[in-house]
Design a protein that fits this description.
The protein contains five helices and three strands. It is of the alpha+beta class.
């Protein structure tokens, strides 16, 4: 059975994870929207989060006038993964940081090495 927390509490956990990102990094995140969604699209599988956009490391002087990148955090899979709110806090933090890392161009192999895969 999935852990139960309100949408408001889940949003607070996402905000807390974002607030722990050092300002010097967070200030570089631009043209990117973070969205909490209930479930990923079926073709995505049971992922916890997803980054959709052009990583900062790949942006050139031609990068302008584009729609914002998106970071999606999926509430359902995260709630099903954990058995306590303490575990949820940690998994939300890891997921948010993982997807922010993709914004900076860090791939899954490097994230795995760093403990954020």
């Amino acid at each position: 059975m999935a852990l139960q927390v309100t949408q408001e509490r889940f949003d607070e956990l996402v905000d807390e994870a974002l607030s722990e990102i050092p300002d010097q990094l967070f200030d570089l995140v631009e043209n990117c929207a973070l969205i909490v969604a209930e479930e990923p699209e079926p073709e995505m599988g049971d992922v916890l989060g997803f980054y959709d956009g052009t990583p900062l490391s790949e942006r050139t002087s031609q990068y302008s006038g584009v729609l914002p990148d998106r970071i999606l955090i999926f509430r359902g899979p995260l709630l099903r993964l954990v058995s306590s709110e303490a575990e949820l806090v940690e998994e939300v933090r890891i997921t948010v940081w993982h997807e922010i890392a993709h914004f900076f161009g860090i791939d899954d192999d490097e994230l795995d090495h760093l403990g954020y895969a």
